[in-house]
Each structure stands twice: as C-alpha cells, then as structure tokens.
Specification:
The chain is of the alpha+beta class. The protein has four domains: 1-46, no CATH class; 68-289, Thrombin, subunit H; 293-395, PDZ domain (Pdz3 Domain, Roll), CATH 2.30.42.10; 414-508, PDZ domain (Pdz3 Domain, Roll), CATH 2.30.42. A hairpin with a 5-residue loop joins β3 (113-122) and β4. The radius of gyration is 32 Å and the shape is elongated.
Length: 524
Amino acid sequence: MSEKSVTNVCTRGGRRNWTKALLAGCMLVSAVGPWAGSVSWADTSSMIKPSNPAQRIPDFVELVKQVKPAVVSITSMIRSDAVEGEGGGMGMGGGPFPFPFPFQMMPQPSKQLIEARGSGFVISADGYVVTNNHVVKGATKVTVTLDDGTTLPAKVVGRDGKTDLALLKVTPTQKLPFIELGESDDVQPGEWVIAVGNPYGLGGTVTAGIVSARGRDINEGPYDNFIQVDAPINRGNSGGPLFTQDGKVVGVNTAILSPSGGGSIGIGFAIPSDTVRSVVDQLRKTGHVVRGYLGVNAQVISPVMASALNLPAPAAAGAPPAGALVASVSQDSPAEKAGLKAEDVITDFNGQKIASPHDLAVRVAAVAPGTQVTIGFVRAGKAQTATTKIGNLASATGDAGKTASTAGGQHLGVALAPLNRDTRQQLGLPQDTHGVVVSDVEAGSPADQAGIRPGDVIQSVGGQQVDMPKAAVSLVKAAMAAKKPVLLRILRDGQSLFIAISPDGSAAGLPADNGAGSGDDDDN
C-alpha cells in the first residue's frame, strides 16, 4: 500500500476520523525525510525512561524448575461416610478449615466412593511422600501422580490426626527427585515463600507471597503452631510444600481462612517443618506417633493473676504476662516427680521460653518419652528450676484431657459451707478433699458475673489452704484491705483452676489453652 493510500485510510472523513483511526492503531508514516520509518510524535525530551531499580522483585523461575519435580498430586478414593464425617473439608466459611479437595465426584452407586485430590511432596529417593492426614483419611485407594505424569499406587504408612500429617510410600522404578525439610524456626515474618501444589486439580501450580506470622493457633488441633502466609493457596493445595528461597520445605499447606468457604483471600496456614520432621520420622519407623507427657493442667495468666502471684512485670509495657500457670499436677506424673505444684508458673521448658499453656503443650508433645528435660518456673515470686524425664502421653492417666475455665469479681458474693462427709459424697469428692464449698451465689454479684457456681470448692486463698468458711472470708478481707489481688484456687468437676480478684473490682481467670489439656489425651 502506498503512502497516499495509507494517508487516505487514516484521514478519510476529516479530523474526527483521523482521531478514531489513531485510537484504532493507525500511524501516519512518511516515506522520505527525517521522520522516515518513525512515528510522528511530539518532542520526546521529557519522556520518562525508567532505570533498573536497585532492588527487584524476586524471580523464582530457577527455584521452581529445581523443586517442582518433587511435588506430586494425590488422588484418594474415599468412602462417602468418611467424607460426610469430615465435612469434606468444604463448606466451613467464616473460619479456618482444611481444604483437601478441589472438587468431589458423585458417589459411585456400587461402591459409594468419592474421588478427591490433594497435594504432596517426595522426601526420599525410594518413594516416601508427605501429605495431609485429611487428604487420605478414610481412603480405600490412594495414587500418586508425579510431575512427569507417572501415576503410582501408594500405601499409607501412617497418619497423625492431631497434626494433620500423613506419610505415604510408592515403589518407583528409579530414584525419585526429592526435597529437604528446612528449619521453620528460622523463618521470619516478611520473608518470601513459594507454594506448589494441585489447586482445583490444576497440578504443578506455583504461587508466591510472604510469611505473615508464626505460631498461629487456629483451634484446629491441640498442637496448632501454624505459619501464616499470604501466598494464594486453595482447595487441593492441602499437603503441598511451602518453600523458602533456599529451596527447602518450611511448611506443609493445610488450611485457609475464607469467609465464604471458597477460595483464598490471602490467609493460609502451613504446618511448620520442625513439626513435620518429628512426626514423619516416627511414622516412618513405627507407623504411629508418641508424644511427650508432663502431667500438668495449665491456664493462661492475666495481669491481675500476675500481680497476685508476684510475677515480674513484662519487659514491654502493656505486654501480656508470659508463662503457664499450673492449676493442678497429675499424680505420679513427671511434673509431680519434678516437684511442681499448683500455683507454680512455668516460664521455660528445656531452654525454650514458654509464652502460654498452648506453647507449653506444643513443646512437651514434641519431646520423645524418656527424654530428660529442665523446667524453669516461678514459685512465690522466686525463679527455680527442676529436671524430670518426660512420660508417654499414650499411657498417661489421671487429669489428661481436662480444661479449666474461670472468672472472678471484686468480692465473692457467695454463701460458703464447710465440707463434711455428706457434702463430699453429694459432690462426688474423695473424702480427703479439703476446702470450703460454695452453697449459693448471689444473683448479679461479682461472683455470679465471674462464673462461680454452687458446688465449687474453694481450696486456697492467696496460696493458703482453707478448710473453714471463716478462714476464707478473713483471708479475702485482709487482701482487699491491703489493696492486693487475691488468688483463689477452685476445685470444679474434679479439676483445679484459679481466679484472681483485684481490689478495683476486676477479675481474671481465662480458660486453659486448648493445647494445654483439651481432647481425650492432649494434656501437657
């Protein structure tokens, strides 16, 4: 086409059509002269010419090429009743939930099975694969599809519901590429991470983001200690690895927070690799997991309780008190053998600082039974240490599985009665139980607002044992007169718990952390 014809096409109809043509992509080109072959724009002296920034967004291309061959897709044929019992990992909007399956097929009429998919990764050349427990729980058949498309039958070596981890084994014809577990304790908020998995059945999907937080407890299990990430992860990512830039796995993607119960909104959770390492090693050796047992029922410490216990003030103004308040000690437990008592505050476990009862539960559970440990605690305002051998949670008896929940008020507002043989029998208490029983609670009183109930037994006030109502009242009045918080030890439903009453009318006694003693055998 000649210059003239081009000009006619671009300018036909006058100025208006010239503008339209230009917007449509036409350019007026001169065949000769200084603008030959150039767009006829105005002066370009002020044109912005970006230079390469000093710091560029990370490029994960080479990293993904190296680690992706070890990431696999997992297909499980699961009994429909097992899926119903689990909720299928779906429809739990508004809170954190597992997301094992990108979709569900209709149950097969003859076998009543549902096909579901998740993710996993190879951790050894001979075919061990890590995934989530909820991906394979209830499965009658499991297959693993490698990155190159090869599909292999898989055997479930072992599962651990409390951490939502499972170990599979495939038999490859040659050595498989595998990836290494890193140190999740070294991961810091703000650090770049990469998730690889099988979201919605789309295998080999790569997403990236940063670590948002560590140590998240989302009440999914007694040993929650998740890494929170904003890397987009969705249903089907369950069991997939979370990498740092050194190519090591620091987490296993397991749950998301979704208000609608649908896809990712940038709040995902991964099981730390330190937990994965401990659980997987045990599953590989024995097919099951054993956990450490200390034998204490612990609860959170409020500022009022901290004052009543003469604990040192937190280093940062306004920070919550750290530690786990021992509400009770199980008979013949490692804690009892170490000399721990109710009202002790555990601040250190085997060299690691303890921030809360849940923190203590996670630390204790990770220790192999029979291991000698050192426990740092505060008693009557003085720091002390003790040593003991950790027991086996599976064989523990006594207080395992109980929780504490308390509250309090400025004054009691209760009617007290001494314990006698008949009262102990009515309450189902051993005859050697000491204390005074709450026979009535005044409606609307601080005690009522605190949650104190008829039948509660007050065993000590300010660390001093009480056996008569008069003694209990005297100790409370004396503390109030001195404008000091009063710490009550209560026996309720066979469990000890604490209530701190402040002279200003405030009270505290938060529930024991779920990880400190909830479930059937999840006590410290």
